[in-house]
Amino acid sequence: DALPICWISAPSMSTRVLFQELKTAMCVSKKQRKKIEEEFSVLPELENRTIEEKTGYDKFCDTQVIQNQCIYEGKEIRVLHDYAPISLTKDGLHLLLVTKRHCVASSELTFSEFKEKFDLKQKLIKHFKEKGCTVVHNFEKNGWLQSVPHNHEHLVFGEKEPVTFLEKVGTVPKLAWRTRLPNLKERVEVLSKELFDVLKK
Asked: Is the pLDDT assigned to residue 3 strictly greater than 50?
């Protein structure tokens, strides 16, 4: 009738998964399950609270960050270069589509923001596919485990899809260990010139 050992060392960011596991675990009685359910109902959603949220700091509303990383500024959306890109190309082509206005979830976007973001994304994908980046990873952390409390979308470009087991394993370090781009300023300047006419159309 004892609780599994993982209950004692539960990582805060996995509370939902852990709760589901414990709820269905064979060694948890109905009485204990009820107790766990009550405890979880009063816990704050720790996985949603980042350092930025605790301190109120939002990188994408910081003028210094915008100045350093901005490649293109549209009417309502900015295109930024990630300061620590996922490097699936030798140049580490990892862009961010960020709303100028502060908002967190996609559900808060206006129609014009959504449309501009979508249009910019399509232009970027078309441009870099023509340059040989045949793989595009597009993802958005929408609230849950979002590291910056500001709506943004990632576009990560790759030259070729990993096919073999070794190629797939080889991408893991690139995804897991991201490092700051030493030449970020120069990279932003080059891409700004390259993309200005492409995105302005």
From this structure: no
